[in-house]
Amino acid sequence: MHVTLREPRMTVAHVIHSLGAGGAEAVLVELARVAPSAGIRLIVIGLSEPESGAGGHRSVVPRLRELGAIVYEMHSARYNPVPALTLARLFRAERVDIVHTHLKHADVIGGVAARLAGVPSVSTLHVIDIPASALQRLRVRAAVLARRWLSSTVIAVSNAQREWYSGYAGPDAPVTLLPNGVSAPEPTRDRATVRAELGVADDTVLGLCLSLMRPEKGHADLVEAMRRLPGDTSVVVAMAGDGPLLNRIDSMVASDPELQRRCRVLGFRRDSLDLLAAADFVVQPSLEDALPTALISALAYGRPIVATRVGGIAEIVAPQCGQLVEAGHPAALSGAIVEMAATIRDRSAVADAMRQAARERYHTRFSSDIWIENLRALYGRTMTPRRIAMVEFPPSGGLFQFSLQLGEALARSGSDVELITGPAPELSSREKGCRVRSLLPTWHPAAGSDTHRLWRRARRGLRAGRLVAAWMVLVVHLVRARPDVVMWSEWRFALDGWAVHLVRRVLPNAILALVAHEPRPLVEQPGQPEFYKNSSATSRGLATAHADLDVAFVLGEQAKKALTETWPIAAPVHVIPHGDESIFCSETIVAADTTGPVALSFGTITKYKGFDTLCDAWPKVRAQVPDAELVIAGAVSADVDEAALRTRVDDLAGVTLRAGYVPVADVASYFSRARCVVLPYKRSSQSGVAHLALTFSRPVVATHVGDIPNVVRDGQSGILVAPDDADGLAGAVIRLLTDAELAAQLGNTGNQALTASASWDHVAAQLLRGLDDLRSS
Asked: Is 322 helix (H, G, I), strand (E, B) or coil?
């Protein structure tokens, strides 16, 4: 399936150093394949002659023209400034809307030409350039600064690459995470024919390394890993790719009869898709790598992967799609190859699950349709930056932290973001394009939680007045600012609903959006038996707000179901992930197996979070683990009797209650000391604490409610139990407190999965796709 043309045609000029047979050139071929479906008229300009060994019959020019791209070859010397003038004239003559540059030479020449022509430009990073000397470091820094000065935004193809770039360019440098995509594979020859050509028997497991043979790609480590295989391992690895190390790798294999039996050095091949179809798994031994396209193609084919944990590889290879090992360790690579071969040969159910997971990951993250839609949207935002107003009444707490991190990611993608909140926000923005504006006369969520109950009751009227004033200030500010998008994360009161309706009236052309963390407003006051508010006034007011929405976002399918079943919402509802909580990680994360038997229950202490069940379970834990400790940390909500809670906790051995809001600076100390995190919720759509735990590589014991099972995967990143099941909760906590190795394994797996699938840039990209769908509909 391809995206359909929904917007006016756009002309994009891609400028690259040369049009040989490298990875960046292959990306342009993929782009030429899908650009017409997105209404993109593609012009490709090669500045210089291809390097020796990559020219002639190995040029991508014929393929680009065959796919409909307009190709210009300039044959100029490297870093010759004169072609910039020629390019600028060409951009004007071709009526280019935006310039897209690739690699250092083109970034400079193409970026200058775009400036001369008055056309916006973007640049894609294709490598993570690790300098080996002071001179190389100077060159890298110069190239980074040139990109930052000449480009409206820089595209990083992986989160690791984005962090590398920001380290040189500064944290406020515009950078957008946008992974490359590939088209669905279409092999031309059958598997048996290709394997017969390679001399690989049907009962032999075939691995494939599809990569240019350069030092950073680690082919020497792969050869050494194959040398170390046990004699009875029935596996062959084929290495396809050109490059400066081809002759060396070929000689290493040719000099050893055992390697000749186990390895096939193929050199440059045009039939890489046929090779992938014939292979049983793919291996990538890189020492450094940004986002190898060969691994994305492996996902598309449903091929399990053995690779090194460097650069953006971990963002391609989720834990269920293959195995990752440390780079530069041939022994570890050899062991992983042996294990993968055994899985493919002897454990068909496990191998089938890996193949299915690989295909699903391709379709949800790396398909060419997703890539070209995101790229087209980025071009549009670069030409006309979108102004987004995010409204967060409380200036601290989980929702504020979520909004700030999302706002920063939206700013990195090219949007102009304003986070409107209350007094003295607990965090400031780290991104130039995201501003925190303290305009609203609201309050911090935990402010006054330690005061007497009678005063709490009396101040409700005062806070109601402050909320009315906050909405008045907000509406006036929005009328003056005229943002393109107004986005909220929570509505709790009837007043919120009627005020949103007023915003709809005064800003008829703005997109009104909601990120619904909890689709139904929770009870926050004592004496109410239900978990969710059910007053008729609140229901009528919030129904009006939901009817006025243009788009809504939720953090899981269960939340989507609750939102659409509860409110009269006609707007599209998109599911987006919750990002990680790296904003709290200022120091190196301590491994879970280095702690004592400490369990942590973190976050606001409220009725629906099941602290009564946790207190019922804890004596059973202490009976099995006498030195176990439980730390309960968080502000006490108004619906919980704090005196009764303290009395209950005082009767439990090994329990410490730290009542009160935990400042951001103190969060890491709580998680670093814990071996596991406990979330015994009775009801909930999702939990930011679960993401916080996995960010710190801590396994989670949680209840099977809402969308929590999508984050805490039973047996992978934690243990799930039924709500209100004290015995089951105790058993799960005991298991993790008595098995430090298991706790570390589950925590690390959860952290890897979170990093691979839920970076904030990925969250922002999905949210922007939802907004772009509105603009183009």
From this structure: strand
DSSP state of 582: G
- Could you tell me if 604 and 716 lie in one domain? yes
* Nearest Cα to Cα of residue 333 among 344, 343, 323, 342: 323
CA distances from 264 to 231, 260, 556, 626 (A): 17, 7, 46, 58
Measured CA to CA, the distance from residue 719 to residue 709 in angstroms comes to 9
**Structural domains counted in the chain:** 4
What token pair was written down for 602?
A: 């973190």
Q: In the sheet that 40-46 helps form, which strands lie side by side, from edge to edge?
A: 70-73, 40-46, 10-16, 98-102, 121-124, 153-156, 175-177
The structure tokens 């004169």 sit at 82
pLDDT digits (tens, 9 = 90+) for 214-268: 999 999 999 999 999 998 889 999 999 988 999 999 999 999 999 999 999 999 8
Q: Which residues fall within 8 angstroms of residue 40, CB to CB, at 6 or more apart? A: 9, 10, 11, 12, 372, 376, 379
According to DSSP, residue 347 is labeled -
Listed in sequence order, the residues at least 6 apart from 229 whose beta carbon sits closer than 8 Å to its beta carbon are 235, 262, 334, 337, 338
* Contact predicate 78/108, CB 8 Å: no
Distance CA 735, CA 632 (A): 19
Q: What is the per-residue pLDDT across 554-574, written as a single tens digit (0 to 9) for each? A: 998 999 999 999 999 999 999
* Span between the terminal Cα atoms of the chain, in Å: 18
Structural domain span for residue 653: 582-757
On whether both 547 and 456 belong to a single domain, the answer is yes
259: amino acid identity, one letter: L
Q: What is the DSSP letter of 637?
A: P
In a domain, residue 769? The reply is no
Give CA 708 to chain center in angstroms.
18
Q: What is the pLDDT of residues 267-312, one digit of tens each?
A: 988 888 899 999 999 999 999 888 898 999 999 999 999 999 998 8
Q: Sign of dihedral through CA atoms 257, 259, 260, 265? A: negative
The tokens for 60 are 């991508």
